[in-house]
Amino acid sequence: MTDNNKKLELIELTKRYILQQKDIYGDVLWGNFNLENKINKRKNAKYSSLEEMYDNVKDCQKCGLASTRTKFVFGKGSGDAKLVLVGEAPGRDEDLKGEPFVGRAGQLLTKILNAINLKREEVYIANVLKCRPPNNRDPVESEMEMCLPHLNEQLKIIKPEIILCLGRVSAQCLLKTKMSMKELRGKVYSYQGIKTLVTYHPAALLRNPQLKKPTWEDVQFVRKLYDDE
Ligand code: SF4
User: Fold this and answer.
1) Hey, where are the domains in the chain?
2) 168 lines ligand 1 (CB under 6 A)
3) pTM for the whole thing?
4) Which of 2, 15, 124, 127 could cross-link to 81 by cystine, CB 3.0-4.6 Å?
5) Domain 31-228 falls in which CATH fold?
6) What is the pLDDT of residues 57-75, one digit of tens each?
7) Does residue 30 have a pLDDT over 80?
């Protein structure tokens, strides 16, 4: 058999294996998360702790939002959380306080976490952007590109088992997709070798209470994965 034939046979076998896995796991995108996670955990973080990282990045000037922010909003929670929640960007309250999810949406997020028996202190909460876009406008692509390395470093330090993206913007940014929220929910993805799921941003729930039911389904699924880890 020629080298080319061997390659084609290998591709065919791999394809068959993937299809078998999809049959077994249905809608849940499969992946060898444990293996990927182990590889991820072997990667050295640039900083030894979140505190050290904070001291080094709190004066970040990489994008224009540095000149309009009141406070840099790093993130808050447990440094060895199993679950990291990732929102889009700080809003007005967060910008003033320097903490993520402290306004009305943040209070709702606390209730959602409590409903699945988690306290805020047990998880880690951050945003893709560490500085507030003026008037809460959507982050632009270049700002997210500049800021995403900060989140990636945080993930290397925390080494969570699960990431929950809160809202379309953070999900599309992490998963490099343009899929809608409806398409994104209900599946398990992999970001940096970490199981990653998507649900609505709590601010969307405040605007549209009908989203509470699907969000409840999403967070119950997250809790199940959390317990399985
Ligand atoms: S948004 Fe991110 S990249 Fe831009 S200045 Fe703030 S911390 Fe730096």
Assistant:
1) 31-228
2) no
3) 0.83
4) 124
5) Uracil-DNA Glycosylase, subunit E (3.40.470)
6) 999 999 999 999 999 999 9
7) no
